[in-house]
Amino acid sequence: MGGAAGRSPDDDRRTPLADERLRRQAAEDAAAWEAAELAEFVRRQPESRSEYRTASGLPLQRVYTPADVAGSDWERLGLPGRYPFTRGPYPTMYRGRLWTMRQIAGYGTPADTNERFRYLIAQGQTGLSVDFDMPTLMGYDSDHEMSEGEVGREGVAIDVLDDMEALFAGIDLESISVSMTINPTAWILLAMYVAVAQGRGHDLNKLSGTIQNDILKEYVAQKEWIYPIGPSMRIVRDTIVHCARTMARYNPINISGYHISEAGANALQEAAFTMANARAYVREVVGSGVPADDFAGRLSFYFVCQSDFFEELAKFRAVRRVWATMMREEFGARRPESMRLRFHCQTAAASLTKPQPYNNVVRTTLQALCAVLGGAQSLHTNGLDEAYAIPSESAMKLALRTQQVIADETNVASVVDPLGGSYYLESLTDRMERGIHDYLRRIEEIGGTLRAIETNFFQREIAETAYEHALRKASGERVVVGVNKYVDPPGADEAVDVHRIDPAAERRQIEHLRAVKAARDPTAVGSALARLRSDAADTAANLMPATIEAVKARASMGEIVEALRPSFGTYRETPVF
Amino acid sequence: MGDAIATGRRARPIRILVAKVGLDGHDRGVKIVARALRDAGMEVIYTGLHRTPLEVVKVALQEDVDAIGVSILSGAHMTVFPKLLDLLRAEGLADEIALLGGGVIPDEDVVALKRLGVADLVGQDATPDEVVAAVQTAVAARRTVR
Questions:
Q1: Is residue B89 one of the residues assigned to a domain?
Q2: Helix (H) or strand (E) holding A60
Q3: Can you tell me the distance from the alpha carbon of A61 to that of A428, in angstroms, rounded to the nearest whole number?
C-alpha cells in the first residue's frame, strides 16, 4: 500500500503501475499544461465549483495521470481470481457465469409470496431472495400483540415449519439458490429451511443459498435485535460452524454494508464498518477453535451501490483487497477461497424519490451498471415505486429487465474489471483502502468492534453523516433531481401503480398458526423446547440441532425465541441523535 | 384564557416527543428530525425504537409535551395512528397534543390520516426546515384554539 516516499524491504518485489520515468514525465507535462492551456481556459471559463469531492468527501482532482498512481503496484492490482482479488473473486467472472439476478420478494402469507417467486422465475430470475415481515424479523409470532398491523406487510410472515413449506412449494431447492434477509431469528429460519429440504429428501450439501445473519450491523444500523451482543454472537458462531460441517455450499452469513449505508453512512464508512464487523465474526469463530480456512470460504458480503459512480466502483475493489489482506495476514488463511470476497449488491433504496418516480428507473440503471462493473456476484435492482410501498409486480419486472439489458445488450460483461488501470480509479481505490484501514485502526483503539458498538461509535458516525447529508440536500448542494432541482409544479405528479396489501392476510396467517398449534403433539414440542433451553445454558453446545428438532415438532418461532430468553436476556439500546 | 398565560405559553419552547412505534428499525429519518427540531430550539425527547402506542402516550403525558412526532416505515401506519389518536382522546389530550407523522406513507393514506385527526404528515423528501415548520404550525394551531 505504502506511498511513494520511503523504501521498505518489500520494494524489491514491487512493480509500480507506472514506472518512475513515466511518472516524472506525466508530472512535468501536467505542470506545463496547468501553466498554459489550463490557466488560460479557466480564466475565460471558471469551473463550476471551487472544489470537487466524492460523496464520502474525498477530494477529487481535475484529471488523473500516471503521477497519481505512484503508490499503486501491479501486485496489488494483478489478475482476477488471484490474490489480492482487487479485480474480482473469479478468473473469468461474468464470462463463466453471469451474476445472479436476485430480486427480493415477500409479502402477505407464504402462499402469496410463493406466487411472486414463481412469477419472477418465469421472467428469467436466477435466484430467490426472501423478505420477511417485521414480526418474523424480530421473533414475534403473528398472533403476538406487537405484531398487530405488521403481519405480511413489509415481507412474508413465517411462524412455523408449514409456512416454510408453503413458501417454497413447487420450487426445486437444489437447483436455485435462496437468500433470506433475516438476522436475529436467522438460525430459526435456517433450521426451517434445513427441515423442509430434509423432508423433501434433498442432499444438504447441494443446497446453495444465504442467510443474512449479520447481527452486528443490526446494532449498528438496521436495529433488528432480540438478545444482547454476546449471546447473539454465539448464535452466529453456531450457524457458521454448523453450516461448515453439514452444508458445503451454503453461506451462513451475509456481512452487510447495505443497511449501514441506508442508515446514512457514506461509502467509506460502509466499507470500513462492514470490514470491522467481518473481523469480529472471524475472531469469534477462530476463538472457538475452528481454523479460518475451515469456514471463511463461505462468508459472503452485501453492499449497496449508491449513485457516486466511481466512488462505488473504488469501494468494491478496495474492500476485496482489504478482506484478502486481512484474511491472509491477520488470520493466517491459506486457501484462496478464504480470501476472495464475494458480494451481493442492491441498488440504493434511499436514493429513490417519491416525486417523479420514473427518474428512479434511471437511478437504478446507473447503480446496477456500476455494480456490474464493480464485479458483484448477485444483484437486486429496486422497483421504481419503492418510495411509495413495497414493489408491485410490474415494477419488479422492469427492475429485472434492467439487469437483463445490462447483461445481454451492453457487452460490459465480456471483460473482467474493465475500468481497472484507470489512473483515477486506481488512485481512488488506493485512497479508499487507506481510509478503511484508518477506520479499522481507530476501532481497534476503541477496543474492537463490540466495544465500538457498545460505546455508540458507529451509531454516532452514521448519524453525523446522515445529518450532514440531509442539510446538503436541503440546501441544494446535494442535488436530487425532481426533489430540489427540476421540480414539477404541484399537482403534476406522475401516477404509479402501488402494491396494496391484502388486509385479510394477517387474519389468515393467525388462523393458520392457531390450527397448526392445535394439531401438533404438545409433548414433542415441550421436550424440544426443553432441550433448547438446556443447550442455550451450555455455551459449548451448538444450538442448531435442537432448533431443527424444535421446528420439526412445530414449535413456533416466537416459542423458540422465548425459550432462549431466560439464558440470553434482552438487548436495550441507548439511542443517540 | 388570559393574555399573560398565553404569553407565558408562547415563551416556552416547544416540547416534542419523537417516537418510533412498531417493529421497524429505520431510524435514520427520526434521528435527523430529532436533531433538526433540537437545532431549531425545541426540547426534544426521543423514545428509541419499537415502542407501543400506549408507551408513547404515557411518555407524552409524563413529559408534558406539545406534540408527538411518530416515524413509521413498516407500513403499519393505518393501525398505529388511529390507536394513538384513540389513546390521546381517552386521556383527554387530543386537543392539547398535536400528533404528527412521518415515513413511507402513500398519499391516500395521508389524506385519510389527516381526516382522522393527525395534524400533519411529512414525507421522506421533506427538508429539516419543512419538518420544523410543520411542527410549529401544528403546535401554534392548538395553542390558538385554547
A1: yes
A2: strand A59-60
A3: 10
Angle between helical axes of A393-409 and A110-122 (0-180°, round to 10): 30
Residue B67 within a domain: yes
Block means of pLDDT (10 residues each) for chain B, length 146 residues? Answer: 43 92 89 95 95 95 97 88 96 94 89 96 90 96 73
Residue B50 lies in a domain: yes
At residue B145, the pLDDT reads 59
Put simply, the answer to whether A134 touches B123 (Cβ < 8 Å) is no
Which secondary structure element, helix H or strand E, spans residue A59, and what is its range? Answer: strand A59-60
A388/B36 CB distance under 8 A = no
The per-residue pLDDT for B3 is 41
Contact A314, A432 (CB under 8 A): yes
Q: Closest-CA residue in chain A for B54?
A: A146
Classify residue A550: in a domain, yes or no: no
Give me the CATH number covering residue A189. Answer: 3.20.20.240
Q: Which of A146, A149, A483 shows the shortest C-beta gap to B125?
A: A483
Q: A260 and A271 in contact (C-beta within 8 Å)? A: no
**Is residue A485 one of the residues assigned to a domain?**
no
Chain A nearest CA to B34, separation (Å): 7
Mean pLDDT of A445-457: 97
Whether residue A391 is contained in a domain is answered as yes
Q: Which residues of A touch B48 (CB under 8 A)?
A: 573-575
* Residue-by-residue DSSP string for A344-378: EEEE-GGG--SSSTTHHHHHHHHHHHHHHHTT-SE
Residue B2 falls inside a structural domain: no
Q: Which of B31, B44, B81 should one mutate to test binding to chain A, selecting the residue with the greatest count of A CBs within 10 A?
A: B31
The alpha carbon of residue B32 is apart from the nearest alpha carbon of chain A, in Å, by: 6
Number of domains in chain A: 1
Measured between alpha carbons, how far is A14 from A205 in angstroms, rounded to an integer? 42
pLDDT digits (tens, 9 = 90+) for A76-109: 999 999 999 999 999 999 999 999 999 889 999 9
Please give, rounded to a whole number of angstroms, the shortest distance from the CA of A497 to a CA of chain B.
11
Tell me if A155 is assigned to some domain.
yes
Residue-number span of the structural domain to which A464 is assigned: 75-475
Residue A288 makes CB contacts below 8 A (sequence gap 6+) with: A237, A241
SS3 content of chain A, % helix, strand, coil (to 5): 55, 10, 40
Substitution target in A146, A215, A486, A577 with the highest count of B β-carbons within 10 Å is A577
Number of domains, chain B: 1
Average pLDDT, chain A: 94
Q: What is the CATH number of the domain that holds B44?
A: 3.40.50.280
- The residue range of the domain holding B79 is 14-145
Handedness of CA A88, A91, A93, A97 (dihedral sign): negative
CB atoms within 10 A of CB B34: 26
State how far the Cα of A468 lies from the Cα of B124, in Å rounded to an integer.
16
With an 8 Å Cβ cutoff, are A473 and B127 in contact? yes
> Across the interface, do B79 and A575 touch by the CB < 8 Å criterion?
no
